[in-house]
Specification:
With about 400 residues, this protein is α/β, with parallel strands linked by helices. Helices cover about 40% and strands about 20% of the residues. It folds into 2 domains: about 90 residues, Urease, subunit C, domain 1; about 300 residues, TIM Barrel. The chain is globular. It binds zinc ion.
Length: about 400
């Protein structure tokens, strides 16, 4: 047994403990007991600073890791997406694999224990299988033309087979502006057969997406033209933001759905969406929003309306400088006066674990859970001062 003590322990189950002790069974790698100060004297390993549960990254694209630093910032989403197809061909398989491995290891070093990871293809699967991190893979489908729906579902089913095990994998639509109704329906049928109806979709990420759905105009019209697609042939503006179309296409209102980004989601959209679905989750990747659009979601509405359904993601290294949930938290904490550290930590840990259906193992520090413990090596005084100043970015989390 290891007995680990820290100045402050955030268990996510009750108030933080002062000088509490986590008793860990090394054989099972699980927490045996969460004990108050003074319960044990002998054999206690005292660490300065803070313990909290390991982080859950609900949205990543490991397979894009080699694009780090290759796409300029602040271009808006359309010009961000434009070079990706061409860039994908400019790297060797070895370069891609090296980048995937490094990104997976970077996440683990940053205290991330589980990831919801988008895969268009299967080239990240080998690393995900050998990783220390738990992965749920979302095989992503694309295609706005209704004729492409069937072939795309067939292609995605082949990617599914490369995962070998049917555990922790589902098919997902890329975004409202890139997936036809037929494709959306087709992939939901596959998920139902798999028994894994967890969906994820990029939502209201850019101004261009809003314009497209509201009035059929904006940068996406030109973008599709350059791909040889006349949007007016296959797409009709609805006069309402894309979220209304996305939710209308769900075949079951009890489906677990993660909406990712939500940069332009209004309070009205949020309240309406929450009323339609029983298992709706919202993911923020603020550093990617800043990278691409120089914009951030309006967090205060989400805090008021759905705090226990909010999770965090890093997006990919194509749109971020690092894969660190702590850095995403630091940005939100600094920019949002309405949020407390305890609440934000819930988004980064237990909420993500509940979304990925792994809260029996992760998300809190309690007896019976896996000993996935993040340590912030600091002092109580420095940590408390940082909380007051709403500036926590200087700390580097590490897994014990
Ligand atoms: Zn994404």
């Amino acid at each position: 047994m290891r007995k680990l003590q820290a100045d402050i322990i955030y268990t996510n189950s009750g108030e933080p403990l002062n000088n509490g002790i986590l008793v860990v069974d090394e054989a099972s790698e699980r927490i045996k007991e969460v004990a108050p100060e003074g319960s044990y004297v002998e054999g206690v390993e005292k660490k300065e600073g803070v313990f909290c549960p390991a982080f859950i990254n609900a949205h990543c694209h490991l397979e894009l890791s080699h694009l780090k630093g290759h796409i300029p910032e602040a271009t808006g989403l359309v010009d961000f997406v434009r070079p990706i197809a061409k860039l994908r061909q400019e790297f060797t398989e070895e370069q891609i694999q090296t980048a995937i491995k490094a990104a997976d290891e970077e996440m683990f070093q940053n205290g991330i224990i589980a990831v919801g990871d988008i895969s268009n293809v299967s080239n990240s699967f080998a690393q995900k299988k050998r990783s220390n991190i738990h992965y749920h893979t979302f095989v992503e489908c694309l295609g706005l033309s209704p004729q492409r729906a069937l072939p795309e579902v067939e292609r995605a089913k082949e990617v599914l087979q490369d995962w070998a095990s049917e555990q922790h994998i589902s098919l997902v639509p890329h975004a409202p502006y890139s997936v036809s109704k037929e494709l959306f329906m087709g992939l939901q049928e596959v998920n139902t057969k798999l028994g894994q109806p967890i969906l994820s979709i990029h939502n209201q990420e850019s101004q261009a997406e809003q314009q497209l759905f509201e009035s059929g105009t904006g940068d996406f019209v030109d973008f599709y033209k350059t791909l040889g697609i006349e949007l007016s042939d296959i797409f009709q503006a609805t006069g309402r933001p894309s979220i209304y179309s996305t939710i209308a296409q769900l075949s079951d209102p009890n489906t677990r759905l993660l909406l990712v980004h939500n940069t332009f989601t209004t309070k009205e959209d949020l309240v309406w969406a929450n009323a339609q679905l029983s298992d709706l989750w919202w993911c923020f990747c603020p550093r990617a929003n800043w990278y691409i659009e120089r914009n951030l979601p309006d967090f205060k509405h989400f805090i008021a309306e759905s705090s226990d359904r909010l999770v965090l993601g890093t997006d990919s290294l194509a749109s971020n400088h690092s894969l660190s949930i702590w850095e995403e938290m630091s940005l939100i904490f600094k920019k949002t006066k309405e949020i407390t550290f305890d609440e934000l930590l819930g988004w980064a840990t237990i909420n993500g674990a509940r979304f990925l259906n792994i809260d029996q193992d992760y998300g809190t520090l309690e007896a019976g859970k896996k000993a996935a413990i993040v340590w912030l090596d600091t002092t109580r005084a420095k940590f408390e001062k940082a909380l007051q100043a709403k500036n926590i970015e200087k700390f580097s989390p590490e897994l014990l």
